[in-house]
Write a structure and sequence with these properties.
The chain is α+β, with helices and mostly antiparallel strands. Helix content is 16%, strand content 26%. Strand 5 (84-85) and strand 6 (88-89) form a beta hairpin. It is globular and about 55 Å long. The structure holds zinc ion.
């Protein structure tokens, strides 16, 4: 998946000479993400890997220099021509076009999405916590963090300790 993506956007040395040219969006929080991280050197903390947790075995590889971007999706439905091993297709027998669906795409990136120092920092008008990199939402003249704006968080507050 990684090799197909990198080849098509003209990146051959993601950890070497091409290391500042590459960004990857992954759409799953499973081992494929770790594999892509290991092969490309892209990491969330370097802001070169973005995780969109859609539960899909898919990733988009972006050449930041040329703008060329491809989205690679692992095909799961088709059976392999050489028969399946215990229900799992024998991937080694399958040509690339049967393994993956590959599309050329365009990914709008804002300056705040790119590697480098934070470009912006605001304080949420509701919870008072700091929001970096333009992730705030302007609402009725206030800057709000996304959970305050959506009134929806992944946790439920039990008690403020300090
Ligand atoms: Zn807030």
């Amino acid at each position: 998946m990684t090799m197909s993506g990198l080849r098509r956007i003209g990146i051959s040395d993601p950890k070497g000479v091409d290391r500042k040219k590459l960004m990857v969006f992954v759409e799953i929080d499973r081992c494929a993400t770790d594999a892509i991280m290991a092969l490309t050197g892209c990491r969330p903390g370097k802001r070169t890997m973005k995780i969109r947790d859609f539960g899909k075995m898919a990733a988009t590889f972006i050449n930041l220099e040329s703008g060329k971007s491809v989205r690679v999706v692992a095909r799961t439905k088709k059976k392999s021509p050489g028969g399946d091993v215990g229900g799992i297709p024998d991937y080694s027998l399958m040509p690339e076009e049967e393994l993956f669906s590959i599309s050329e795409v365009q990914v709008p990136l804002r300056p705040e999405d790119l590697p480098g120092k934070p470009l912006r920092s605001v304080v949420c008008g509701c919870c008072g916590e700091t929001v970096l990199d333009g992730r705030e939402i302007e609402y009725q003249g206030d800057s709000l963090c996304r959970p305050c704006f959506e009134k929806n968080d992944y946790y439920q507050l039990k008690e403020v300790l300090e």
